[in-house]
Amino acid sequence: MPTLLYLHGFNSSPQSVKAQQMREHLQQKRPDIHLICPQLAATPAKAWAQIQSICDELVALGHPFGVAGSSLGGFLATRVAEQYGVRAVVINPAINPHILLQDYLGEQLNPYTEQHYLLTEQHIQELVGLRVNQPSCMERVWLLQQQGDEVLDYREALDYYRFARVCIQKGGNHAFVRFDHYCAQIIRFLQL
What backbone torsions phi and psi does residue 150 show, to the nearest 5 degrees? Predict the structure, then answer.
């Protein structure tokens, strides 16, 4: 069964608006596609271990899969594309989360799960280790980016993903306005 692995962003969850919109789209239009949208661990190394475990199992079972991710999930989706040779769609992705999250060091609360945890310098170094510095997967990546992203500088994404397929929109925000209009196109790009 073809599978879509959807990776949520920092302090988010499978209950995020985009994850729910994708889930609803698949239920209504593509019930033949299995959606895996895990609640990722709060810290990078543990989240990556979860993702690797899921991907390794999909590979072992011979299930074709693609990955989509938003913000920090887009950062991780790029690593999945690089490591597993699959297609990826990245939505307003974090390019340098090790820099961005310096401002978030300390106690954190995930508003979806109500989990309290501590973001430390060790976690920043885990992000440095997870970054794909010289990606070779760009022909399999589609960047969906809105210039009105209030959290991330969209120009970083345009530079990093310059050899990928790119859709850049004026306006919008970090949540990616009207994401539901892209669900079918995402599935087609991922070849699921």
Answer: -85, -5
Q: Are 51 and 76 in contact (CB under 8 A)?
A: yes
* pTM check: above 0.90: yes
Give the tokens for residue 48.
């990556």
For residue 181, the one-letter residue type is H
**Which residue has tokens 């508003």?**
111
- What is d(CA 21, CA 98) in angstroms, rounded to the nearest whole number? 29
Q: Pull the structure tokens for residue 30.
A: 């593509």
Contact 128, 107 (CB under 8 A): no
Q: Identity (one letter) of the amino acid at 141?
A: V
Taking only the tens place, the pLDDT of each residue in 127-174 is 999 999 999 999 999 999 999 999 999 999 999 999 999 999 999 999
